[in-house]
């Protein structure tokens, strides 16, 4: 049909235009799968960015991010003019003059390349097209992409087409903003905001000309010109960018000379981007959202969500400060317990042979060295015992030491760890979550992943079962030796004879409240015998314990492994009138445009009769109010006054491996666990290792600081009055010790109200003895 055109010039022109149209259509349609994918009109209108999701506390404090590419897009107005000038001067001086493809720039770059000055000809718009739509990635290539000579030609042509589409859709300012929000700056920093925070701890609108030149200079080679890895190369490249800025008139000659002499002056220790992204809380929320993400088909790593937790940042900070203060002292105590002895011991107290070597064999470096030295274990251990410089975690901060791998292994396995959680018992909102002492060194979360023997903190489920079986807090049992004969799962007969913690028996009748307050194993065992251990297991599960519980006579003494999360949830059931609430860690989620796409509320279920639930809170108060109650150490802190009431329970597992404290107030339920991850490493005695000496001080110190900030919603006061009629007898005061101190002696009066007997003892005055010490 072209033969009809008589003019050769016109004819050839039409042939070129027609051929170009055919090529464009073929590329766009991916004809015969030759050209690969090209961005559609929809892609151009709605370009997809992988945007990091942000994690906030309930009071809007940023505490972490989830990302594949750490990207946080910003608007044009939030970008420093220095950044824009540096980018245009270096990458595309004719940016505001072309329509996506700069043919003048292409010709100029070709001439420069022939002269030995290799320069790229891609415009900012073309580079944006490449970043947004992956035009050079394998998945964008068609069959022609496998032919080396044609691959680059097809790719470039697609970039040109995409660049023209972008220019027809967006303004220049929108294009340059999109470009700066998409480019990579190494160290997993994507986009100008992530980069400016990562390298200079500044927002992108606050960057100086020299700082801007450093970042824009990286675009030529993010590894080669990385200011952290190659500072000399980075300065060299920065100065080239500054020279280009001078050449294009963005800075003066004097400014260039001044800026080019400045040091890099990096500030990479940005807390917003650093430590918060490596935390137990961030990991816990990630796990908590797994099911929701799967159901909704939303990837929290790329969707740019704003996720609000139920955590109160101020409470969390108080808890973290308390942990640091208390755990430092506890670690010193454990170290002093063993001094120069090996701390890993079996039940009999004997050193476990080969303990450290067995741990070393599980290290990745051990396997690598064994392969390198052809299975010569003796040689490998010789290398592992050679000192070398390293950084280790201590409570004084990361410390540079000269230590062997075996010594560092001993250091880490001998560290005490902890888990702490606090929750509003009425709405299920978790306020504090501390999974351990340091997430960088100990990834295992001791709130919901770790499960340890609960010890006496499990006893309230025994007493609740007793109440549900018709007993009353005033019912009495005798503190005496007890023997339980039972048949185990293997059908074998066994005998269980529990002893009290002090190995003594008072042979005294005690109310249920007093017995639980003193945490007597003998009376707990008798109640277990009378109500049945199967029922105790059922009660615990109903209240919130979800772990498997072996139904054995010792179940009430906390012989099973449970988590801090479960224990806090179960104790909250007592405070919430017998209604079990599901703890929630996330309250709301917003999408990238600010629209709320999810909100979470707890669910509740009545699992305990309200009368029995209230009686359990009354009995938990007994550990502080009853004589020799196990929580009376709380009086050493400023926790009372204003008629404040606290209930709680200590717990210690066998051989002082685990220390627990569970505390309840009118506003908050909290649980604390302390112990070594290696259960063969423990304290030696009750004076150093029981829950009242390890976990209770953490709870008490936290609550003392929390009460100083009533604006956080946790205040002193009485427990709520019962909302139902209490028909069971519960007000049966135990024998009290009343002290009257005359001038020459101390008179101690024991009022045994249950027997109507009064005993008056006169003690010699003890110089320097406080009245409250005598009372205790």
TrEMBL record:
Keyword Cell division found: no
Domain Penicillin-binding protein transpeptidase: 420-663
Domain Glycosyl transferase family: 63-246
Record keywords: Carboxypeptidase, Cell membrane, Cell shape, Cell wall biogenesis/degradation, Glycosyltransferase, Hydrolase, Membrane, Multifunctional enzyme, Peptidoglycan synthesis, Protease, Transferase, Transmembrane, Transmembrane helix
Subcellular localization(s) per the UniProt record: Cell membrane
Primary localisation category: membrane
Similarity remark: In the N-terminal section; belongs to the glycosyltransferase 51 family. In the C-terminal section; belongs to the transpeptidase family.
Stated name of the protein: Penicillin-binding protein
